[in-house]
Write a structure and sequence with these properties.
There is one protein chain. It contains 15 helices and 16 strands. It has a nine-stranded mixed beta sheet. A three-stranded antiparallel beta sheet has the order 5-4-15, with no helix packed on it. It has a two-stranded antiparallel sheet with strand order 3-16. α3 (about 165-180) runs antiparallel to α5 (about 225-245) and α9 (about 330-340) packs antiparallel against α10 (about 345-355). The longest helix has 20 residues, at about 225-245. It is an alpha+beta fold. The protein folds into three domains: about 1-295, no CATH class; about 300-375; about 380-445, Orthogonal Bundle (Arc Repressor Mutant, subunit A), CATH 1.10.10.410. The chain binds zinc ion. Zinc ion binds near residues 29, 31, 45, 47 and 149.
């Protein structure tokens, strides 16, 4: 799909991801940072309203959580870091500048390895304050300042993505990492995570010479993984047409319209100098000791990638199953899973139960152990061989469904389960949940 859209051109993408940190207080004042469903303008004070003379005091917890994200992304932490003022005027930013980081961000030069093997090149992870929220209605603009001053982390990559699947997987990995580190919820429906995609095209010749295109188009404020994909596709079509007509696309910011699934122009892209960055005079520079950083590293929770590796290599789940566990269950159920294993539960049975029977996720460990004991699971060697033969036959006879599954259509596995159920009979009817797992495992080993 993507290659057809690109024609003779090659894709170059860089990502900027913003997410809210989960802290008790806002970034520079003592207002409560839990603003979800609060009445507009009820969680505010002179600092986050940007009133003259109000002095910001940095939230140390937010600084620490940003550094945790940096460490999880293999960044170097700057021993000296500081805040800067980024100037622009907009109704949601009445003081005329946002406190952000420019010259000395908290974290620089990280990397993240994706399942595809691609290594994402992280340029920086910095901390800033979020701005207020503006609503436009009936010719008026209304502003709610509750969101103003919520600690906001920005992760910037270098233009290192060459295809859409890697770009989308990276965004998903970041969201998962934020949740597993326990530093935020990154719930896009609540506006806690926003994605910005920098997109440009180049020729094979430029790619060979490792030459970057002379322009980039930034699509702002995307709030779903699906829309990242759609925005890139829409830009490939638009930019390719311009390039084929000998026109270099304009360097600009664009928005994404969900209705048409297309990007539309916004204000033209500011150069960094337009923001007139300068050091925030009301906040002294920060300095960290090697002991402090060592301590952070030692106490860093395992990343989702490390947990997947552990479930696969130490506990013996298939890679596919381990990934699904980490993505679908979240950190608290993974802890529960590990506790059940320590109590002697079988890993494969337990993971099937937690994944496929939601009703058991919140019952006590003792009850789960009881349920597992009473489920028929052990197949005789003969049953096992018969079942494997049936599955192989089903996979061979339904190549379209297998293909669909590999392209990401997860529901086609249920079709395969149905087919396999039809081919087994009487007392040999397998448990559909275990059957599904067997099929997934077989598809998984097939893929590797
Ligand atoms: Zn405040």
């Amino acid at each position: 799909m993507e290659n057809e859209l690109l024609g003779k051109f090659k894709l170059v993408v860089g990502m900027e991801i913003h997410f809210h940190l989960k802290t008790e207080k806002k970034m520079f004042c003592s207002c409560c940072a839990d603003i979800w469903e609060k009445e507009p303008n009820t969680v505010v004070c002179p600092v986050c309203l940007g009133l003259p003379g109000a002095l910001p005091v940095p939230n140390i917890d937010a600084v620490k959580k940003t550094q945790m994200m940096g460490l999880a992304l293999d960044c170097s932490l700057n021993m000296k870091s500081r805040f800067d003022r980024k100037h622009y005027f907009y109704p949601d930013l009445p003081k005329g500048y946002q406190i952000s980081q420019y010259k000395q961000p908290l974290c620089i030069d990280g990397k993240l390895k994706l399942e595809s093997g691609t290594v994402v090149d992280i340029e920086r992870v910095h901390l800033e304050e979020d701005v207020a929220k503006s609503f436009h209605e009936e010719g008026k603009t209304l502003v709610d300042f509750n969101k103003s001053g919520i600690p906001l982390v920005e992760i910037v990559t270098r233009p290192c993505f060459r295809n859409i699947p890697d770009t989308v997987e990276y965004c998903k990995q970041i969201q998962l990492m934020v949740k597993y580190l326990g530093i935020g919820e990154a719930d896009m429906e609540k506006g806690q995570m926003r994605l910005e995609v920098n997109i440009s095209l180049r020729t094979s010749e430029q790619e060979r010479k490792d030459e970057l295109p002379k322009y980039k188009v930034e699509v702002k404020n995307i709030n779903s993984f699906k829309f990242v994909e759609k925005a890139i596709q829409s830009e490939i079509i638009r930019q390719r047409e311009l390039l084929e007509n000998g026109i270099t696309p304009m360097q600009e910011n664009r928005g994404f319209k969900e209705g048409s699934m297309k990007t539309v122009p916004q204000r033209s892209k500011e150069e960094a100098k337009d923001y007139r960055y300068f050091p925030e005079p009301d906040i002294p520079p920060m300095e960290f000791t090697p002991e402090y950083i060592k301590d952070l590293k030692t106490n860093l929770p395992p990343t989702p990638y490390m947990i997947i590796d552990k479930l696969e290599k130490e506990i013996g789940l298939s890679r596919n199953n381990a990934k699904t566990m980490v993505e679908k269950l979240g950190p608290s159920y993974i802890s529960k899973f590990e506790k059940l294993l320590r109590m002697g539960a079988d890993p494969i049975q337990t993971s099937n139960l937690l994944l496929n029977k939601k009703e058991y996720r919140n019952v006590s460990e003792e009850e789960i152990i009881e349920v597992i004991k009473n489920t028929k699971t052990a197949y005789s060697k003969m049953e096992e061989n018969e079942l494997n033969a049936v599955i192989k036959k089903v996979l061979a006879n339904n190549l379209k469904a297998v293909e669909d599954f590999k392209k990401g259509k997860e529901s086609s596995v249920m079709y395969l389960v149905g087919e396999a159920m039809r081919m087994t009979s009487g007392k040999n009817k397998p448990d559909p949940i275990q059957l599904k797992q067997k099929i997934l495992d077989m598809l998984d080993s097939d893929a590797n």
